[in-house]
Amino acid sequence: MVKNLAELAEHSAKRLGERACFEIDGEKYTNLQLLDLGRRLHGAFARRGLGPGQKAVVLMMNHVLVYPVFQGIFRSGATAIPVMPQAAAAELRFVLADTEANMIVTDVERLPTVREAAAGLPHVRMILVQGGTDNPDATPPEVRLDELAGEEPIIELPEINSSDVAIMLYSSGTTGRPKGVLLSHGNLVASAEAVVEAAVLDSWEGPRITLSAMPIAHIFGVAIMNDLLMVPERLADKSKLLQMRWFDPEKFMALIAENKCTTIAAVPTILAVMLHHPAAAKYDLSSLKEVICGGAPLPVELGIAFMNRYPCRIREVYGLTEASGLGTSNRRTEEFRPGSAGRAYCNTEVSIQDDNDQILPTGERGEICLRGPIVMLGYHNRPDETAKTIRDGWLHTGDVGYLDSEGYLFVVDRKKDMIIRGGENIYPAELEAVLHEHPSVAEAAVVGVPDEIYGESVVAFVVAKPGTQPSEAELFEHVTSQVAKFKAPSRIHFLPSLPKGGIGKILRRELRDKATAMRAAAVPQA
Questions:
Q1: Domains in the chain, start-ordered, CATH in brackets?
Q2: What are phi and psi of 125, to 5 degrees?
Q3: Are residues 316 and 330 in contact, defined by beta-carbon separation less than 8 angstroms?
Q4: Residues 6 or more apart whose Cβ sits within 8 Å of residue 367
Q5: Which of 348, 365, 388, 390 is 20 to 30 A from 375, alpha carbon to alpha carbon?
């Protein structure tokens, strides 16, 4: 029985034999080539002190070495900490300090950000750089990653238990403080097994060519990485993954047409862009059979319009980082149900609970809760938050939904104020804290409003301190100096005061309504 991700890769190679399985930027690789690179990086990392109990931050664009980097970390018995490549230095520094990470793996384009974030942190012993470094005498030392990929491999694996932490993914909470989600090897092996079951690949006919632009720093990207190892034997010579470095809509459609891709992994924003792109008619996308859509709720109208335009089946999934990216899934062989995110995965239980943790009957709305081997170990150094989130074995998601009589989940709202823009989670409290740091800001509130392309857009409302007149551009520059640009508000409106309830709580629904109305009427700022 496979108990960790390193064993999963070794077992997959023995089970399938050598197969062409991966392509990026036109370069093609077999599974044995990727495994060999993982073994070599295992050797390089181990010889530089990375081992069980230690942590390595990975901040890279998608690249052929990204998967081997993760395998090298897993094989070393260490924990991988993916960080979005767009992260600002302040965000990365928080992660580095919170985890006391020992090593950073990055690419040359992000090296300035990494240097700024790591400055003065004694636990960061080494920075590995894809593309090279211009400072061989740097402190901490900077080493070329591609050179390490040529070092002697380590074939034997150390003892790695299924309960050991494989990945720590940071997810901001409603308090604004990012939390490290601890996912074990057992969590992610169980996730990979469940994803394969939901895909019903035993009945798949013909080639299965998947295209993805998902970043490996997202749980969706992690699932795709592990899915590569779970291909059934009957599809070994018919299945491969095309990986883009980043999402470019026209290139995405061109790759589907050129390679006759049958499957794409997407967030709803990608489907909206494809549907409305002015160049869409240029490309023959008739090879598409399946769209695996997750990361954010899929609007019913968008799903129906996409399937009317392209001859494919959308398989909507629901999940969250704390459940290894899983929760529910529509099966490939089942009829499309608009608005539903499918049924529980094979190894997962789903219930709807009230505020007293009582399970509600079919059709009643309440909090979506999950239980099973995919549920995280907890939050790093956050025992109180962990206890609040996992109660009696149930992971409380903070999302609101209901189950129908056949066990299909319908997600209808979120208890938390999280905004999902283009599949990325954005937390108002984090942005509000940054806005409050500006010397001219007295009060700030951030809300999400519906957006046709991105699902939601971010809008901020600010009350300026007396005697000051900050501009929208000034505050935007301040925010983007502290957080990734994709999190920044698309508009910043100024108000004399924020609407509040009787106990002084900001009435976010009023602000959402105001932002939606202003957007629809294109009302200029006050």
A1: 31-160 (3.40.50.980), 185-414 (3.40.50.12780), 419-521 (3.30.300.30)
A2: -95, -20
A3: yes
A4: 352, 353, 354, 355, 396, 397, 398, 399, 400, 415
A5: 365
